[in-house]
Each structure stands twice: as C-alpha cells, then as structure tokens.
Amino acid sequence: MDRKLGTLIILMVTCAIALSVAAHFFSVFPFDLKITRELREEQNPVVSQTLQWVSVLGETWIEAVLAGTVIAICLVRRRWPEAVFVLATLSSVILTSVLKVLVGRPRPPSFLGDPNDLFWSVDQFSFPSGHVLFYIVFFGFIALLAWSHLTGYVRWLIMVICGLLIVLIGPSRVYLGAHWASDVIGSYVIGVLWLLMIILPYLRSGLSPVMQMKRE
C-alpha cells in the first residue's frame, strides 16, 4: 500500500473512532443545533423538494432494487467479479446497524419513526446515517465502474449523478430531521473508509481496464 494512502487511512480511522466515541457520550453538539436550525429555515420549494427526493433512494427496498438491478446488468454482461463487488457494497447496511447499536445515540426530537417498524430496534439510533453510508459506498463504487467500463457522455452522466447524490444526501438527512450534522460528518468519514476497503481490492485485482492500461 502506498505510504500516503496508508497514512490517510490511519487518520480517517482515528477520526471515525473519535467521532463515534463522542457521539456515544453526547447526544447532540452545539453546532448540530445551529446547522439544523439554518437548514430547516430554508423555504425554497425547489430546494426542499430536491432534498426530499434525494433521500428516497435510501429506503431499504429501493436500495435492494438498485443493487439487484446493477448486479443483474453485470451478470448479463458476464462481469462476474463486478457483480460480487456490487453485492459487497451492501455490507454498508450491516456496518450501519452494528455501529448504531454500539454508539446508541438517540435520533433528533424531530425524527418521526415508527415503533412498529421491523427494524425499529436499530432505526431508533442516529449515528451513523445509513443513507449516507449506503450512498457513499454504493454510488461511489458505481461511479468507479462507470469510469472503468464506460465511455463518452454516459460515463460522465453516471459519475455526475452519483457524485451529486453523495454530496446532497448529507444535507438532506439533516434537513429532514432524521440526523444531526455530526451524524452526517461521521458517516462521510466512515463511508469513505468502507468504500476504500471495497475499491482497493477491486483495483489491485486488475479487473479495472483503467488500471490495466496504467500497468501497460
């Protein structure tokens, strides 16, 4: 592993642990309240509707449909390893559940959960954001696949859409009152780390055409 990359990963792991421990002991930070107040004061209907729609793709059944669709496309095109790696991105859901229970941070008061929900025992906790982790890991890997295997405007279109979803999902979760800003910040750090754990083996396996060209 490159020394700079290794150093970066160590720093990110340290930040992730520090944020998780802090979230365990503090249910909210002062800047959380300020950011939530400022975001929720936004009255622009276009911004409001956009942020609401961004979060829709993070519903559990939609996550399964998205992943299943991409896996099916990979199988049809005989991209067996890619199908396995896309399936691996769903591990972010398991990671989220484990961390939520371990950290045990309560949701913001504005969160309207359903105690009858099958996953309420996990969903009642706020740190980290499952939406953010899924978006970073899943859409981040899809962007990599687009860069590696597609060309022209289709490649850039998919990468831009994935990038926008990753950028907007954090503010969206705070705006909707589902998470604190610190939940989102921690989720971005943890999500990028988990994405690296999936991307690095993929790139080092030589499956990516881009990496194959660099080696040549």
What does this structure look like?
By secondary structure, this protein is mainly α. The protein has one domain (3-215). The chain has eleven helices and no strands. Helix 3 (45-56) packs across helix 9, helix 4 packs antiparallel against helix 5 (80-89) and helix 8 (130-149) runs parallel beside helix 10 (181-204). It is globular, with a radius of gyration of 18 Å. Residues 212-216 have low confidence and may be disordered.
Present the secondary structure layout.
Blueprint: H1 3-25, H2 30-40, H3 45-56, H4 60-76, H5 80-89, H6 91-103, H7 120-123, H8 130-149, H9 152-175, H10 181-204, H11 209-215
Helix pairs in contact: 1-10, 3-9, 4-5, 6-8, 8-9, 8-10, 9-10
The number of helical runs is 11
Distance between the termini: 20 Å
In angstroms, what is the radius of gyration? 18 Å
Which percent range describes the beta-strand content?
A: under 5%
Q: Please tell me what the overall shape is.
A: globular
Number of domains: 1
Report the mean per-residue pLDDT as an integer.
Answer: 88
List the uncertain runs: 212-216
Number of distinct beta strands: 0
| Estimated helix fraction | over 70%
Class from helix and strand fractions: mainly alpha
| Largest sheet descriptor | none
SSE sequence, one letter per element: HHHHHHHHHHH
